Amino acid sequence: FSFQSAILKAFSVFGYGKFSCIVFILIFNLGFSQHKIINTGWQFSEDKTNWETVNIPHTWNKNDAFDDAPGYRRGKGFYKKLVFIPAEEKEAIQYLKFNGINQEATVFVNGTQIGNHKGGYTAFNFEVTNYLNYNAYNLIEVEVDNSHNIDIPPLDADFTFYGGIYRDVELISLPQQHFSLNDFASDGFYINYPNVSEEKASIEVTTLLRNTNSKSTKTLLKITLLDAQGAEIKSRTEILKLDGNTSNTFKIKLSDVYKPNLWSPDNPYLYKLNLVLTNENENVLQTKSSNVGFRRVNVDADKGFFLNGKPIKLIGVNRHQDFKGFGNAVPIELQKKDIELIKNMGTNVIRFAHYPHSRELYDLCDRLGILVWTEVPIVNKVTDSKAFFDVCIAMQNEHVKQYYNYPSVAMFGYMNEIFIRLVFDRNISEAEAANLKTSSFKLAQQLEDLTRSLAPNHITVMACHLNEVYNETGIADLPMLLGWNLYFGWYDKDIPDLGIFLDDQHKRFPKRSLLLSEYGPGADVRIYTKTPKKFDFSTDYQAKLHQSYYKQIIERPFMTGMTAWNFADFGSEFRGDAIPHVNQKGLVQFDRTPKEIYYWYKAVLDQTAPFVHVAANYLSGLVLTNTTSFPISLFSNQHNASVFLNEEKLVDVTFENGSATVDLPLKNGKNLIKVVSGDASDEQRIEVLKIDELDFKSFQRFGINIGSHFYFTDEAHQITFVPDQSYKKDWFGHLDGQPYNASEDKHQGIPHNIKNTTSEPLFQTMLEGCTNYKIDVPDGNYKVNLFFVEPQIKPTENIYNLAEQTPELVEIKQRIFDVYLNTILIEKQFNMANEYSEKYGITLTSTISVRNKDGLTILLNPIEGIPVISGVLIEKLD
Ligand code: GCB
Known about the structure:
This protein is an alpha+beta fold and 878 residues long. 17% of the residues lie in helices and 37% in strands. The strands form 14 sheets. An 8-stranded parallel barrel has the order 26-27-28-29-30-31-32-34, surrounded by 4 helices. The chain is globular. The structure holds (2S,3S,4S,5R)-3,4,5-trihydroxy-6-oxo-oxane-2-carboxylic acid (GCB). (2S,3S,4S,5R)-3,4,5-trihydroxy-6-oxo-oxane-2-carboxylic acid binds next to loops.
């Protein structure tokens, strides 16, 4: 009976949490392992001259990826830190482990380069034992580089490649015999489930045990399986002889578990596997543990996805890891909230796109019950070079091996839209195109083979964009499950074309299993309309598209499921939707505030408790012009509900596809909307301004979003701009002009990334060719703001706006006009392209006195080209 075995006993009786620190303090000298997280107090510099103190997670691009200047700093960043290594650790084997550095890292210890790693989203480590000084400070330096590098994927993608050390850095001390860290920075053991059924399940553990001593050494490995309550179910101890100076592989099988509690999204039952490595005298050398979830997954081309032999429709989201204000350096607790939000929405699957995310999140998916598709960032294009292929193969090895033991991980992927550049780059020659097809296929084949051989309990996946080239090249036949990223009703055709496409694919390729791996329109919560249209960025169009897509997928049993693009808005530097540098297809905003569509998904997916929701979150400040009612959506997982307006019962509604719409006779001022269904209820207060006449009696300011069919609630101007209309007497509207680039296919012509404003949707939509705009205000003094932007300056090319390339924008036409308010000249020879070198949000402000019941007329008098105008805001002065 030794002290060590007493400690070991304590472990098995009380679990590891309580005792680990005592154990660690008392027996470290005897060889116990230790992980230190060294995130604080790093020095960072962009030029090795000016240093600042930073903590990990860190990125140098969290601001410049969102500022007005195009691009973000892609280059080098230097980090350094002093770490004291005590004399007591002299016998230990030491590693530095980096959990995520984007995208290339070169590491130095005390001035000596110890290694280099390529790839920004997987962990790596280096053994540093021989480079450390004991009882002394040691200098760790990391040179990070996020420059474009043709040998590192992703070469190009619709997201920002923030540079920096953005996941934990660890210093690991190990005894001479330990779980190897040398197998692509995995944990040194892999859990397999050779068979899983309701009757029984088996576990096989492959361990890699390293012995750095030159002599062969006897060790004991105790493997214990505990149930969710911590009770021991199975245990096995093996005496293992470790050869000297090498890694030793052992396969150990536990006896079958009968009537296992199977893991699923509805029942995320987790067993726990503990591994305790001891020396001959039973002194603990190292302990490891892992979630165990008994689950079996497979796909059927006609019947969809199967979990534990039962069909399950996968409905969920894609996720990117960045967050407003943080870039990719997001505290892990904040990231975990994402997974909780996703679970609360009722989803059963996440696609971690387009790269492996933090491992803690996969652990949470195990616990909460969310199936996972995880992939490496080989996106848009490959480089046909050995160096690129080598990085890809190493990356997939790291990915599969590091994420292998999470039972939630069902699907391992390796490519996204790999032919998009081939299809959209204008200057790719035919020969280059042919070569790209061959090399991409070759790489895909290698990655497919590798993934299948490494991960026998998983499904291999890949995602394609809408193009025949995936079928022609045969690349689409490689994975076990093929994902299509489909944007019908956005980049392509119309919403109902989704089903037509899928049916056709299923007919043509009846043996393929399919998943809708991406879909969704951009949506800005400040934009809403009664008449949603493609590319208006309204939350209403978002609702329309998602609701229809859901129906179309549910109706098709052959579809394994769907993952919305994207869970949250995310940073994409070159892109501008209604917010610059942000892709706004999220179900929640960049700061994770839910958009209304989030609640609709909850209504159709989450059956855990009765749920109703009033989708009027953003309507406060609504301006009703000449109308008494406004349609408001209600979402619920119930059949029907009662609607109350200002404490009075209005109507009973029935929900279809999770949604119902009521026309609410809102009153001027505060309104309380309430929905009740059984025990569930929700209410929303909104403030409404009713304007039946432009008399400026109950209001002082009035704004029109000229050239637009949608409302825009603008924080900067503290007003909701109302949609435009053609002129009506005693009211307002345009007498001539057309919405600029109104045709649905012309969306790329809408100016993005407008500078000097946060009111993009006000500026982005405009009338072209309007010379005469009338607003019939009563006599009095007014301050008038007119809003303009020159839409032709510097169009940004965006390959994701697939429907159209815009050569006509290259020929910029001159546009000069005089601006009058009634008879007063406000701006002579207004020539925006001449005055501003960039797309600028321009406001012309002037006061005017309206007399003789003239009302207000905005006159744009063309001198050259066609005038444009984006909006007007009128304020009564007295
Ligand atoms: C896609 C890409 C994704 C983009 C998305 C979009 O197909 O896979 O990375 O962000 O489309 O929003 O255009």
